[in-house]
């Protein structure tokens, strides 16, 4: 860092007469630009770019953290193992189940809440705060809190169910229910934030458009279908795509609430990467998982950008 | 008549949803303000949503958990990590954004393209090799391991770049004619003019650091260095577990975020929707 600064001073302080000002100022610009970028480059390089490249490299090796010296290049062996790995397949199946359900539930709820709040005059602030309240809790807090509410034996929810005459449920201890519970808790936590974004989108729709459609004789439902929804398209696409990418990265809720169980029914790919790489120290195999699953997410991200942002110029 | 029915339905639905969304937060709060036994004896009645009738019992679970665990330490760690990340992220991301927005240097297009490409890498999937790097740097189990990786984010650099590009160049040119250095222009003119961008990036960075869980769990082994999020699951797994004490630590971890959201809500929505239209 100091060295680079020295070079920089060299450029600016001593200005040889022979060199044209234009050239030296261009050099100066190069050095300045580079210096301004340096801290970000170091951080992004060390913790994003290099790890990504390392994952790619290690995915072809049998790197075991405790015996790094015995690491050998094994070609596509990890990927062959991975393709026949039942646990990986289960985890991918689980995440697609999660994505498939969370998308309509969370985004639909968010839109519904925004419409409700946008419409009612009295008590809007109270409703807004109530719907938003789960957002202020971290995922760890939310997961631990629901763990207590959903406790099959002594939890609040079963107590309520039994009070209104319904049978108690096993919730997280059932392989059939656990993932749906996680979907519900995640949607419950995230909907309030997206409600605010939808609300901003709704308030950007000019009043005249509604007035015009009323004059044309449209009823509320037609108005919603033909005015509100089309005008909300950019907002909706933004929300849908961020939800999609975020959903693929699910790990904290299953880690805290179910440890991936029961019977791996809530094990997600990122959680599986964590287990093989961190708990079992199989860096090589975990890297192959990273490349495979990270690749899937990247494909989805790029497709989504192509699909959503056709007019992007950067 | 018909109008009244719809209005009633709307309010009924609104209230029902409001209860669904807010009851866990209220239950968490009141359960942290009553004796352990009362949580379970109250459960069948509406008293489950009221704190202890005896005001002197309100702080008891807090006192007990402060005695059992070094909560002050965890809270201090979380605040220290979050403030360091906030300050560092504002400075580092804005420096980079400034370079991309106003300085013409060789390789700028390439670097900017590379940064946009980095945006698609899902950070959560590369935690293993990120851990290997952190270990080789010799910073495992230090605050640096928690703070450093959060200091630069392609999205925030992009947000600053867009913001700086929109600032008129007249002031900068005038300052340049008077011999101000690029850094001086950045520090004295650009930063003070970008309070909205700073507020957005700062708030998002603070929340990101405060809620960070998986990474600190991986790189910190000494419980003295734990942030609150890691301490919470640790406490929840340390026998004996008392529900009222767990609810107390959950509440302690949530209060700072409530304050952040109350004071910076505007910037969060602005940040997200504006960055959204920017990326679109």
Could you characterize what this model shows?
Chain A: This is Fructooligosaccharide transport system permease protein. Chain A: Keywords: Cell membrane, Membrane, Transmembrane, Transmembrane helix, Transport. Chain A: It comes from Alkalibacterium subtropicum. The complex is a heterodimer of chains A (314) and B (280). Chain A has helices at residues 2-13, 21-58, 77-83, 86-119, 124-132, 139-149, 156-163, 178-203, 207-215, 220-231, 233-248, 252-257, 269-279, 283-308. Chain A is globular. Chain A folds into 2 domains: 2-58, no CATH class; 79-308, MetI-like (MetI-like fold). Chain A contains 14 helices and no strands. Chain B has 2 domains: 2-65, no CATH class; 69-279, MetI-like (MetI-like fold, Orthogonal Bundle), CATH 1.10.3720.10. Chain B is 73% helix and 0% strand. Chain B contains 14 helices and no strands. The longest helix of chain B is centred in the C-terminal third of the chain and has 37 residues, at 243-279. Chain B is globular, with a radius of gyration of 24 Å. Residues 274-280 of chain B have low confidence and may be disordered. At the A-B interface, α2, α4, α5, α6 and α7 of A face α1, α4, α5, α6 and α10 of B.
């Amino acid at each position: 860092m100091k060295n680079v600064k020295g070079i920089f001073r060299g450029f600016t302080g001593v200005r040889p007469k022979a060199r044209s000002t234009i050239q030296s100022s261009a050099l100066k610009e190069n050095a300045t630009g580079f210096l301004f970028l340096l801290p970000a480059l170091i951080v992004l390089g060390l913790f994003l770019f290099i790890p990504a490249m390392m994952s790619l490299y290690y995915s072809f090796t049998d790197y075991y953290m405790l015996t790094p010296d015995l690491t050998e290049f094994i070609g596509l062996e990890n990927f062959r193992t991975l393709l026949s790995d039942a646990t990986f397949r289960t985890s991918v199946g689980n995440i697609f189940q999660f994505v498939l359900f969370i998308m309509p539930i969370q985004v639909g709820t968010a839109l519904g809440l925004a419409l409700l709040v946008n419409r009612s005059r009295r008590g809007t602030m109270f409703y807004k705060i109530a719907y938003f309240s789960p957002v202020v809790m971290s995922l760890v807090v939310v997961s631990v809190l629901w763990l207590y509410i959903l406790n099959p034996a002594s939890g609040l929810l079963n107590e309520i169910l039994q009070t209104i005459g319904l049978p108690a449920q096993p919730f997280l201890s059932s392989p059939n229910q656990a993932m749906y519970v996680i979907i519900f808790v995640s949607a419950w936590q995230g909907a309030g934030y997206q409600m605010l974004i939808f609300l901003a989108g709704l308030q950007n729709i000019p009043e005249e458009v509604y007035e015009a459609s009323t004059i044309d004789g449209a009823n509320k439902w037609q108005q919603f279908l033909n005015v509100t929804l089309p005008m909300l398209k950019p907002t909706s696409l933004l929300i849908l795509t961020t939800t999609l990418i975020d959903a693929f990265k699910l790990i904290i809720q299953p880690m805290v609430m179910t440890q991936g169980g029961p019977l791996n029914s809530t094990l997600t790919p990122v959680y599986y990467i964590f287990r093989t790489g961190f708990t079992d120290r199989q860096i090589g195999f975990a890297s192959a998982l990273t490349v495979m699953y990270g690749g899937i997410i990247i494909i989805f991200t790029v497709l989504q950008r192509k699909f959503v942002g056709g007019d992007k110029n950067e | 008549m018909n109008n009244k029915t719809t209005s009633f339905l709307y309010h009924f639905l609104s209230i029902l949803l409001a209860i669904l969304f807010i009851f866990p937060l209220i239950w968490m709060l009141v359960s942290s303000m009553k004796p352990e036994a009362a949580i379970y004896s109250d459960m069948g009645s509406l008293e489950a949503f009221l704190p202890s009738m005896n005001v002197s019992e309100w702080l008891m679970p807090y006192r007990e958990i402060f005695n059992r665990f070094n909560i002050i330490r965890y809270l201090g760690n979380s605040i220290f990590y979050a403030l360091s990340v906030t300050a560092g992220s504002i400075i580092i991301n804005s420096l980079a954004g400034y370079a991309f927005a106003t300085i013409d240097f060789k390789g700028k297009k390439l670097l900017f393209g590379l940064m946009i490409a980095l945006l698609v890498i899902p950070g959560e999937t590369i935690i293993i090799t990120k851990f290997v790097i952190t270990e080789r740097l010799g910073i495992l189990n230090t605050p640096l391991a928690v703070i450093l990786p959060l200091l630069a984010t392609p999205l925030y650099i992009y947000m600053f770049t867009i913001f700086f590009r929109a600032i008129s160049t007249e002031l900068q040119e005038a300052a340049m004619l008077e011999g101000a250095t690029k850094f001086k222009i950045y520090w004295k003119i650009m930063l003070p003019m970008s309070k909205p961008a700073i507020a957005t990036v700062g708030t998002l960075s603070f929340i990101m650091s405060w809620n960070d869980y998986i990474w600190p769990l991986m790189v910190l082994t000494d419980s003295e260095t734990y942030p609150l999020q890691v301490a919470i699951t640790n406490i929840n797994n340390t026998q004996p577990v008392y529900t009222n004490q767990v609810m107390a630590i959950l509440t302690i971890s949530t209060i700072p975020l409530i304050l952040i959201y109350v004071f910076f809500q505007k910037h969060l929505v602005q940040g997200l929707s504006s960055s959204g239209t920017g990326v679109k």
